Amino acid sequence: MTLVRSFAALAPLALLLLACPGTSPVTGPKDKAGPSPSASASVEAPGPELDAPPPTPKKAVFKEYHGESVADDYQWLEDGTSSDVKSWVGDHNRRTRAFLDILPGRQALYTSVRKFVEYGTPAFYAFQHKGGVLFSMRWRPPKQQPFLVTLTPVDKPNAEKVLLDPNTVDPSGNTSIDYYVASPDGGKVAVSLSKGDRAGGSIRVFDVGSGREIAEVVPQGAGRYKGKSIAWNAGGTGFFYTRYPAEGEGKPEDRGFFQKVYFHKLYTPVKDDAPAIDKLPRLAQIDLETSGDGKFVTARIESGYGGPKEHHVFRQGGGFSKVADAADEVERTVAGPDGDLYIISKKDAPRGKLLRTSAWKPQLAKATVVVPEGESVLLDVLPTLQRIYVRSSAGGPSEMRWFDLKGKPGGVVPTLPVSAVHEVVLLQEDDLYFENESFTEASAWYRFRASSGKVEKTAMAQPATADFGDATVVRETCTSKDGTKIPLSILRRKDAKFDGQNPTILTGQGGFGVVVSPDYDPTRRAWLDVGGIVAVANLRGGGEGGDGWHKAGMLTQKQTVFDDFFACAERLFELKVTKSDKLALLGAPQSPLLMGAALTQRPDMFRAIVARGGIYDMLRLEGTPNGAYDVPEYGSIADEKQFKALYGYSPYHRVEDGKPYPATLLLTGENDPRGDPSHARKMAARLLAATSAKAPILLRSSGDTGRGVGTPLDHAVLEAVDVYTFLFHVLGIRKP
């Protein structure tokens, strides 16, 4: 299955927003065009007076946890269907717009940022090579959404044929392709479509030759993720897919849980589809993948996000059988063209080792070690008839190597320095396409020729809209509270002086085993041009250091992540990169807790915080369908020890009356299937009631999107402009 990385998801500062409830959509900046950006930062720029926040009544509710009574004054804001809540959100959105829309310099930012967001994404991405046909998602502004094309022959971008364009299906731009999967022979393609980033896509099938839609529409049900996965059978006569319970199936409280694997035979009633893997965990999240020849389908079943995993394999002519249980610590299984099953295991190898057993009769206990554990973290494997390609993470940046079928090292696939490899696609004769980007080099597709060991950049690349030739990346380390060394990447212009005066953005994640790798974000050009610096931290809780690195920052150890982050800020001060009143924090979608923890634990350390899709009330989190999936990472209030840890750092409960809090922009989406928007509502109310500072605290809630994937182009541009306008104003950046 190929998950579609939307253009919004590829621009970290263009991820969330859209039209605000209770107001008319903003279509552009309102001040007159200013001059082009140039390096200049001074005292905080004058701006409009911020309206008083809407009145927010306190309606205290008390609940006892393990003998401790906890008050919640704003629990009433959790009900997003309430007319009172909708009115409250609309009032906040109007207040936010009234402030941001007339800040000085917005027009100049709009002009430059729009160009960056429009063309900051690869022209082609999410490749699949099936039956000699290359499938790809295509991005071509000013279209609001990417669309699906075929490329025959490969390497000829001008030979593209449009297979499905959601912009034609829905001219409003709110319908997007979640993911697609081509059949093994390349004759058919199954596509998941959804509208407004809502949970619950539907699968539609198309004939590749004619482009016509065929067969039935298969709904996948509403859940934390959009159905999630598809895998064709060998003959292309049907496919396995994942689905949540539909309305009327099971108990109402089970909607959004108990995902299962079904098989659908084309041209038969969907109601007759039978489960192919049953009796799965309540929090099952399932990834299906068909082998290149279609003989095998692997299923990775994770209980909760970052939770224990089990693995199954389907063999042509048979059924699914379990290969590994949670105790086996298997991360990934891939069926190779040689009939073997390749297994990435962390059992007694926290950075991962590669095992092999028969895919026809898999026996994990008798699997042989092909690639032992190394210094880098093993992330993925791609076996061919003659080679085994592996992709690893070296503290964040990617590495690619190849071995022969016996595990003998063969060589390295050349990649950009300090870069990330996102996708790898097998062509023929062991040749590869791979997508590669760095902090300073735009994402592009490269071809690795196995015969020569050479890499060449293909024509399937978007021309870079921002030139970072005058920039450099420095890899630093900082020392956390317990002495652990934490990697830190610093992107700056080569002429930037470390005098403590640089406006700086610090970002990081530190959760769910997610690897934070180098990324090309052209909107950073606007930041560098005013003397700004960007710092990216590789915190514990992520996957950069392997399983042990992740476990050091999860459950009752979550405070470790925050300590790492604070240590990175202190390191920036020590290096005289910046100082506290020049430092802003930018939250990533995969770090919903980090910004809230920084805001409440060290408000003196930062001048501004932008948080998107945040979670702040850690005691109420698991009571929501979204939050239930996060229990393996954060813990449960049912466990007394975990409750004490959760309550100890829960941002919503750690806000103190009378304390001065920094300028804060809270971004959320009402359709976010992964982060309940009630968290941002409650946090905004609590901060506004408590703070003694005059710094702006703003809530911006999207009424028709979620966390970014599927966001129309115009909305993505406006969100990026708002973020930079806010940061420029708060940090006192003036553009002459």
Describe this structure as you would to a colleague:
With 736 residues, this protein is of the alpha+beta class. Helices cover 17% and strands 32% of the residues. Helix 3 (106-119) crosses helix 14. It starts with a strand and ends in a 6-residue tail after the last helix. It has an 8-stranded mixed sheet, with helices on both faces. The model is unreliable at 5-45 (pLDDT under 50). The longest helix is centred in the first third of the chain and has 18 residues, at 83-100.
Features of the shown structure:
736 residues; alpha+beta; eight-stranded mixed beta sheet; five-stranded antiparallel beta sheet; 14 helices; 39 strands; 32% strand
DSSP strand tally:
39
The largest β sheet comes out as: 8 strands, mixed
Range of strand content: 25-35%
How far do the termini sit from each other? 49 Å
Low-confidence runs: 5-45
Mean pLDDT over the full residue set: 88
Shape: globular
Continuous helix count: 14
Helix proportion: 10-25%
Radius of gyration: 25 Å
Class derived from helix and strand content: alpha+beta
- What strand line-up does the widest sheet have? 32-33-35-34-36-37-38-39
Keywords: Hydrolase, Protease, Serine protease, Signal
InterPro entries: AB_hydrolase_fold, Pept_S9A_N, Peptidase_S9_cat, Peptidase_S9A, Prolyl_oligopep/macrocyclase
Domain Peptidase S9A N-terminal: 54-458
Signal peptide: 1-24
Q: Brief overview, please?
A:
The chain is α+β, with helices and mostly antiparallel strands and 736 residues long. It is 17% helix and 32% strand. It comes from Polyangium sorediatum.
